[in-house]
Amino acid sequence: MNSLPQLYLLDGSSYIYRAYYGYRDIATAGGMQTNAVFGFTKMLLALLQENCPDYLTVVFDPPRAETFRREMYPAYKANRDAIPEDLEPQIPYIKMILKALNVPTLEVSGFEADDVIATLAKRYAAEGIQVTVVTGDKDLMQIVDDRIELLDTMKDKRSGAQEVLDRFGVPAELVPDVLGLAGDTSDNIPGVPGIGEKTAAELVRRFGSLDDVLKWKHLVSGKKRKENLHNYADQARLSKTLATVRYDVDVEVPLANLQRQAPNLSALIPLLRELEFEALEIAFTPPALGVVELYSDGSGRDSGPGGYGVVLRYGEHEKELSGFEPLSTSQRMELIAAIRGLEALHNPSTIHVFSDSQYLVRGMSQWIHEWIRNDRLDTPDALANQDLWKQLATLASKHKITWEWIRGHAGHPFNERCDKLAKRAAEDGIRTAEATSQPNATIANEETTPLPVMQTMLEPVPFREDSEFDVDEDGQLTLC
Q: Is 346 a catalytic residue?
C-alpha cells in the first residue's frame, strides 16, 4: 500500500462533460435539467469513497477564447461545439455542490486546466506527494512519472509509465513531439499532413525528438513525407507548442488548503433536496445516533467463484469489507456478505441491515423464526445453505437488528458501492487464482469457523412492510 500522502487533481471541465453525456433524462419535477449536476456529484462521491485522497482540488478551464494557445493559434479548439444550452445553467449548481462539499476549486485566467494541473502535479510530486490526475484526456499523459499517474474513472484505468508507452509508443516526455507531428483533431492541432500517430511515434523513436526528425528529414522514407516535413516544419513546431502543457503557471496554493474536509451538511442537504437528489442525500446523511448501518451485496453465479462487498457506517465513520470465494453461488454470496459484516462488529449493537437480496432479508425477517421453532437449522439437509443460515442466526442473536430490502441497481449509493466491491473482489480473486494455477484455493478470505446456534430464541425483528418480495430473477426464493 502506498504510504505517501495522496493528492488528487481533477479535470473539472472534462468531468462535467462526461457527466452530462453519461447521465441523461434527469430533471426536477419543475422541469429543470439536472443530469450533469447529478452525474458530476455521483462520480465525485464514488471517487472520494473508493480512493480516500488526503488532498483534492477540482480545476476548471477559463473561457476558451481567453487562453494563451488561442492567442497563439486562433483555430485552436475552434472545431468544438458551443456549450449545450441545457448544460450551461447546470454549471453554477455543480460549483455550489463543490463548495458545500468543501472541495476547493481552481481556475487561472489565460491557462487551461491541463496547465494548472501539470504545474501543481510536478510541484507537489517533487515534494514527495503521490499525485493522481483524474482525467480522460490523453494529452496529460506527458506529465506521468514515478510519482504522477492518471486515473480514468469511466474506464477504471490507471496510467503510469508503461501505459503511456503502450498508448503513444514513446516515454511521457516525448508525447508532445508525437502530437507535434501527428496533430490532434480533438483540439484542432494541425501537425504535419500525412503523418499519423503511429508514424510519428516511429519517427520520434528513431531520431529522438521532433526537432531531430526535422533536422534529419532527408533520411525519412517517402518523397511526399520528406516534402511535408520540409513544407510544414514551422507548423509542426507550433503544433508541439500547442500540445505541450505548461509547468510555470503562477498558482500559489499551499498544500494545506487542498486538504480533504468534511462536507458542510447544513448547506449540502438543502441543495440536494432542491435538486431532488434523494439517493445522493442518503449518501451524505449519517446514520441515526447509536445505529450501525450495514450494507451488503454478493456477486456470484449458479456455481463458481464469487465476491462480496460490505459497507459499515456508524456516525461519521465508514468501513469497507470485501472478499472472494472460489466456489459459491449467488445466494451463498449474499449470505456471506451479511455474515462478514456482522462478524466485524465486536460489541452488541443496534443494526440496520440493507440488502438487495430478498432471499437474505426475507429469510432473516420472516423465515428464520419458523426454522428455529421447527429445528430446521439443526436438522441435517433440512434447509438450503443451512451452514450459513446457522451462522447468521447466531450472529444476529447478539444484536438488535432490523432488515430492509432495497431495490438493486436503482441508484442507491451504498447498494451500488457494495455491488462494485463484490464484483471487483470476484474479478481480483479469479485473476489471482489463474495466476497461481490454483483455482480451488481459498484466496483473500480468512477461514471462518462455523458458530453454534445459541440456545436463546431470536426475537421477531421488524422489516419494511411496504417492500414487495417477489421472486428474484434467478429464482432464489424458491430454494426455501
A: no
